[in-house]
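Hello Y.,

Per our agreement to keep a running log of every chain we model this quarter, I'm adding this entry. I've kept the format consistent with earlier entries: sequence first, then predicted structure.
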Amino acid sequence: MRLRLLQILIFVVLVLAWYVLTAPGLIPAFYFEQDNRAAFFFGEPHKVFWVVVEWFTTGEIFGHLAVTLLETALGFAIGAALGLGIGLWLALSPTASAVMDPYIKGFNSMPRVVLAPIFAVWFGLGIWSKVALGVTLVFFVVFFNVYQGVREVSPTLIANARMLGASRRQLLRSIYLPSAMSWVFASLHNAVGLAFVGAVVGEYLGSARGVGYLILQAEGTFDINTVFAGILVLTAFALILDSLVGAVEKRLMTWQPRAGETEKT
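Predicted structure for the entry above:
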């Protein structure tokens, strides 16, 4: 409860600071030459709030938000599944890992944002070009965490399990996957934001729907309040998706002792 109150307090302080710094006449202009220039560049929180309220009361945002969330969810799910599967495969296959190592590193070093126009040509301007970009962003985060998590399993533990007659499938289910799960969920929390990035960047480059499209239209008319409203809506839903990942993690990782419990033992 105390932690939540501190988080709310920080949020309130940030909003108040935003309001004070952008409201004309409240403080002397120390950076911009004119008082209203700060509001032009950074918006005004009360106006941003009313844009968000208008979006949800009129229902204008729902169609755009549904498109962005669908693109995000598909990019997140497909990228995470591929990262998990290929990460396990290469971690358990030293020969395949050695062969694929330069290719994995090469693709990872490639700036994925520049792939967005190529995906638009390949998949069109519909949702799948945005999903493809999200997959490329999510995949490597999950892949490297799964790969590292499996490789760090204790060889002694594996040897003991094999001495007891454990099959390869039993090793995977009872040792490798549980060992990698903490790494997987750590990567999934980061992947949520990257999936949103893929969807929004794709919408920037070409779309007729989506929250990224709304932000792009607002930027074209210098409507900074609408731009910040779109950013806040995306941030709020990214936090909601991250909390869902956290809830799944808490459900699946009940066997793992907490830090305090480990110290006591």
